[in-house]
Amino acid sequence: MVNQYAFFFDASACTGCKACQMACKDRNNLETGLLWRRVYEVAGGSWEKRGDVWVPAVIAYNVSMACNHCEKPLCAMACPVKAIGKREDGIVLIETQRCIGCRYCEWACPYSAIRFDIRSNTVSKCHFCFDAVDAGEPPACVAACPQRALDFGDIADLRQKYGEVRQIHPLPDPAQAEPALVIKPHKDAAAAAAKGAEVANWEEV
Amino acid sequence: MAGEWPLVAFTIIGQSAAGFFLFAGALLYFSSPAGGAGLTAALAVLGSLIAAAALSLFHLRRPARAFRVLSNVGTSPLSREILFGLAFTAFVGLLAVCEWRGVGSRGLLQGLFVLGGLAGVFFVLSMSRVYMLPAEPGWDRSHTPLSFFATALILGASGAAVFIGSFAAPPDALRPLVAAAFVSAAGGLACVVVLTPGRGVLGGGLAPSLRPPRGVPSALFAARVAALLAGMALLAAAWGGLGRRGAPGFLLPAALTVLAAAETSGRFLFYALAGATRTKQIS
């Protein structure tokens, strides 16, 4: 019995190929420009002088991020019409037929996971490929990753397997929404904020 | 930013209506300087609230489903905002009916005014809570409720001064309103200069985020400061002209217009802060 489905993301393994992003778009037939999973390219750093030599001290890694099906879903709490709900297994779903398109959940979500769908004139987001998961299959993004940088399962199992980390730069404070997320950080992630690393591909995400 | 005009209209009109109700009602029901103005004032507030609600529907992509908007009062600040807005409208409506039919003692009218005033204050407060989201560092700060209440006080007091003045009220009745508008505008100006995220003296802040950093138009900030100063100058001139026939009649509506422009530019600036998480770096 799964209490809370969650994603695992291995930042040290992700190459930024965006196969997860494309698999999600393909499976869910998403409109051009609409992304439920996005790969953020985090880059920063500069040259550093070590002794008499200048060496590159750059930071570059990727963060693949979708809805984290938070344990405290701020989107659902904010929705004035209760169009967003949580299943018993923790998957957060949007009831499109109820959505009034106020887009308040977009503001409330710290992970920018809620996206407006111009086809339905309502908001939309990752639904964890719940139909596939119910049938015993993995979500499309997990299945598509050639690096096995994504995994899914019950949050307790993922934490036991991969650890407790759920925040790396530039993700927001996890205390806000208690994301169902486990991360293996990239080696550069710890110094990223201090070195002013920023998302380098805003136009893509 | 420009796409948020329905919310700019809803918040500015709603806050102004609450402020106007408080200032005009306090004079009409506890001082009575302008007999017969109670019904007109209540209808003006009622009309403003209905107009604000109608304009806010343009923000919704599926307005036909909006009847469910009170479904989540337990956790949604947006549902609570609408609830308090409806309560405020209901009390003002009751007051209007009493004034129109000439029923109810003065005590009843005063009671309805106090209840309506409280609902109005909670309406403005709930409006500010809508935007105080942890995911929006540009909004989740004291600047939001302070600027919303500043709008209510500035436009409410100056609007009430224009309204009461139009009923040939004596200068002594107008002076408190003009003074309140001036003090509110000065407080609003201080709030703008000190706390505006990304622009004010203490308006910095930095938070990791998955939202693209946005620039905040400097022209709107400058326009708001300039218009507030101009509005205060007009209010000061109106104060000096009180008692001299004609002067306040021209200056007070001019002050109201300029201050309304200030608050409108400030509100567009406010909505430009959505997603502006790196407020120290925006330009």
How would you sum up this structure, described in words?
- Chain A is α+β, with helices and mostly antiparallel strands and 205 residues long.
- Chain A is 20% helix and 27% strand.
- Chain A contains 7 helices and 10 strands.
- Chain A has helices at 19-28, 74-78, 104-108, 130-134, 140-144, 155-162, 189-192; strands spanning 5-10, 38-50, 53-65, 84-86, 92-94, 115-117, 122-124, 150-154, 181-184, 198-199.
- Chain A has a 3-stranded mixed beta sheet.
- Chain A starts with a strand and ends in a 6-residue tail after the last strand.
- The model of chain A has no long low-confidence stretch (mean pLDDT 96).
- Chain B is mainly alpha-helical and 283 residues long.
- In chain B, 69% of the residues lie in helices and 0% in strands.
- In chain B, helix 6 packs antiparallel against helix 7.
- Chain A binds chain B through residues 40, 65, 74, 76-82, 98-104, 107-112, 116, 121-122, 169-173, 176, 193, 199, 202, 205, and chain B through 59-63, 65-66, 68-72, 75-79, 82, 130-131, 133-136, 207-213, 274.
Which short descriptors sum up this protein?
heterodimer; A: 205 residues; alpha+beta; three-stranded mixed sheet; 7 helices; 10 strands; globular; B: mainly alpha; 8 helices; disordered C terminus
| Stretches with pLDDT under 50, minimum 5 residues of chain B | 278-283
- Biggest protein-protein contact in the assembly: A-B, 36 and 32 residues
Anisotropy-based shape of chain A? globular
How many beta-strand segments of chain A?
A: 10
End-to-end CA span of chain A: 34 Å
The total strand number of chain B stands at: 0
Instruction: Give the overall shape of chain B.
Output: globular
Roughly what fraction of the amino acids of chain B lie in strands? under 5%
Main sheet of chain B?
A: none
Structural class of chain A: alpha+beta
Quaternary structure type: heterodimer
Sequence of strands across the biggest β-sheet of chain A:
8-1-9
**Major sheet characteristics of chain A:** 3 strands, mixed
* Rg on CA atoms of chain B, Å: 19 Å
Count of separate DSSP helical elements of chain A? 7
Give the strand content of chain A.
25-35%
Helices of chain B, by number, come to 8
